Amino acid sequence: MSDFLDQVEACVPALRRYARALTRNADLADDLVQDCLERAISRRGLFRPNGPIRAWLYTILLNIHRNGLRAARRHGETVDLDSVPEPSTPASQPGHLALAEMVRAIDTLPLEQKEALLLVALEGLAYQEAADILAVPLGTLMSRLARARASLRVATGTPAEPHLRTVK
Questions:
Q1: Residue 58 is part of a domain; what is its CATH number?
Q2: Confidence tier at 167 by pLDDT (50, 70, 90)
Q3: How far apart are CA 75 and CA 143, in angstroms?
């Protein structure tokens, strides 16, 4: 039991980072991680140590997040007043603008592309591990990543890398 809890505790920072990237709201992310940890601990008997506990926790977190999104669609969208910018806010520095533009572009991605991109790009997971967490074949994950990256290039006006451009 103690070893299980130690492994779970070691994953908390990564779970919080991923949850914050998914929700874009620190409070919602903390609630999501707490729900994930409660579910994992209460159902620790379901964990089969045939893979890393991190992947199992990400799967739980994603399922809770997806269930929350489905419930939110039924109840309508809530707007966090703290996230609404003041009209007289001065312009940010160029680096902050580029980062904000990328964050907005990621938020516009379909959920399955966003989940895949964040697991690989933000969390640094191997493609196969991310595919296992999302319960999709490796080819599907690769396709989602390619579509997400292409959408981000279009949204941010970033040209494709030279070796990826098609020659006419």
A1: 1.10.1740
A2: very low
A3: 32
pTM, rounded to two decimals: 0.64
Q: Quick one: tokens of 6? A: 């130690």
* Number of Cβ within a 10 Å radius of residue 140: 14
How far apart, in Å, do the first and last CA atoms of the chain sit? 61
> What sign for the dihedral angle of Cα 63, 150, 139, 164?
negative
Where residue 166 falls among pLDDT bands split at 50, 70, 90?
very low
144 inside domain: yes
| Residue-number span of the structural domain to which 133 is assigned | 92-159
Read off the tokens for 78: 């809530």
**Position 55: which residue type?**
A
Question: Looking at the structure, do residues 150 and 97 belong to the same domain, yes or no?
Answer: yes
Q: What pLDDT digit, counting tens, does each position of 139-158 carry? A: 999 999 999 999 998 988 87
Q: CA gyration radius for the chain? A: 18
Specify whether 33 is located in the same domain as 56.
Answer: yes
Average pLDDT of the chain to the nearest whole number: 84
